[in-house]
Automatic annotation (TrEMBL):
It comes from the Bacteria. It comes from Gordonia desulfuricans. Residues 291-357, 360-418 form the CBS domain. The lineage of its organism: Bacteria, Bacillati, Actinomycetota, Actinomycetes, Mycobacteriales. One of its GO terms (cellular component) is membrane. This is Magnesium transporter. It holds the Pfam family MgtE_N. Keywords: CBS domain. The keyword Cell membrane does not apply.
Length: 426
């Protein structure tokens, strides 16, 4: 296939990024555009490339040897692992520029003069100096009712508003940016949001539904969590906290001043705030501070089929779904007497009509809420587990610690923001 010298940004997304010997480096997720001054032709500075580890890095356009219909080839197989970071005057094509409103003065489109139009794509062209610049802009009139305007491609010189000053104005759309995030894991969306300026991040957060934003917020570093929460209206912030897992909500509120945390808790539904309050009584570096108050809990008369149905809940992480805890009613934490647990493998070996009370593991040791990080770590290593029960002195099940929560506490506070190395050679 022959290389191209003109391409629309939307066609780049998803293309494989290859080294000079054909080795796979990652996939294109966006393009970084310089949009500094009005009247200055925007220039493509580089590509946002997602590695197999889901980290997004910046690859300069000067590293690009060719762009073909199926792949982007670089002139080197060694790329910087530093996370993508936008500087002043830079913007992401898909994440920021597409779906924004501009004006055009194309003489061939007189009917669109002084009419708001939205950017739906950017055409890049390679110059003789090997630079890639925005030469064309695909636009569409702002949608009116159920009618969808026709798409037109105009020369960049006829487009006004494709600059940094215009991007700072309120009211820019986010529909195309949201479309890019569909189907992505919450952790990957969180990484993408961290690359965006605060204004754009807040616009996208405002457009996400509560459950989706709660999942994403749980994957952000603590400082980004508190900053994003501060930019939400207080009622929306309360809704998000209620949609979060109690342990993650407790971790987030634990980062706030006591008065501010109490203000949020008092506004939350008591049924939602009560487990969060209980978790906040424990030190964050203990089993009680690490645990979730909503593991899979059943009573001994529950059938294997019912227990497996709980395990299949897509909202449960694989670690949390590895153990089903059996207690005497009530089954909401803190529960009645803790009887034991059933491993998922044991459930798979039993007839569906059997009851879990007959296949209990009563010998597995449990954690106490005061147990230290070292104790919890040794517990998982000793019993080869990824989830373990937290039980108090009265044999009440308080919750469960899963290995993902343990790792999050053991790793440095800024582990989501730091990189293991500066360069990688596939």
């Amino acid at each position: 296939m022959s290389a191209v010298s003109k391409v629309f940004v939307a066609r780049l997304v998803g293309l494989a990024v290859l080294g000079p010997d054909g080795e796979s480096i990652g996939r294109v997720r966006d393009a970084v555009i310089a949009v500094r001054m009005p009247g200055q032709q925007p220039r493509a500075l580089g590509l946002a490339v997602e590695l197999t580890t889901r980290r997004r890095i910046f690859v300069p356009m000067l590293r690009v040897t060719s762009i073909e219909p199926g792949a982007v080839t670089l002139n080197t197989g060694t790329v910087s692992l530093r996370r993508l970071h936008l500087r002043p005057g830079e913007a992401l094509a898909i994440g920021q520029l597409l779906d924004t409103r501009v004006r055009i003065d194309d003489p061939d489109l007189d009917d669109l003069a002084d009419v708001d139009v939205t950017v739906v794509d950017l055409g890049l062209e390679r110059t003789r100096t090997r630079d890639w610049v925005v030469s064309r802009v695909a636009i569409r009139p702002v949608r009116r009712g159920l009618r969808r305007g026709e798409t037109h491609v105009v020369d960049w010189r006829h487009v006004h508003g494709l600059n940094q000053a215009a991007l700072e104005l309120p009211g820019q759309g986010v529909a195309l940016a949201l479309l890019q995030f569909e189907g992505m894991r919450a952790a990957d969306v969180a990484n993408a949001l961290r690359e965006l300026p605060t204004k754009r991040r807040d616009e996208i957060a405002a457009a996400l539904d509560d459950e989706r934003l709660a999942d994403i917020l749980q994957e952000l570093p603590p400082d980004d969590q508190t900053d994003l929460l501060a930019h939400l209206h207080v009622d929306r912030a309360v809704d998000i906290l209620e949609a979060m897992d109690p342990d993650d909500a407790a971790d987030l509120l634990g980062e706030l001043p006591d008065t501010e945390a109490e203000s949020f808790l008092s506004r939350m539904d008591p049924e939602e705030s009560e487990p969060v309050r209980r978790l906040l009584t424990h030190s964050p570096d203990t089993a009680g501070g690490l645990m979730t108050s909503e593991p899979i809990i059943v009573d001994p008369s529950t059938t294997v089929a019912e227990a497996l149905a709980r395990v299949r809940d897509p909202d449960m992480t694989p670690a949390a779904a590895s153990l089903v805890f059996v207690v005497r009613p009530p089954t909401s934490t803190p529960t009645g007497k803790y009887l034991g647990c059933v491993h998922m493998q044991a459930l798979l070996r039993e007839p569906p009509a059997n009851i879990v009370g007959g296949i209990l593991d009563t010998d597995l040791a449990h954690l106490s809420p005061e147990d230290s990080l070292e104790t919890v770590t040794r517990y998982f290593a000793t019993y080869n587990l990824v989830c373990g029960p937290v039980v108090d002195d009265q044999r009440h099940l308080l919750g469960a610690v899963s290995v993902d929560d343990l790792l999050d506490e053991l790793l440095p506070r800024d582990w989501r923001e730091t990189e293991p190395a500066d360069e990688v050679t596939p």
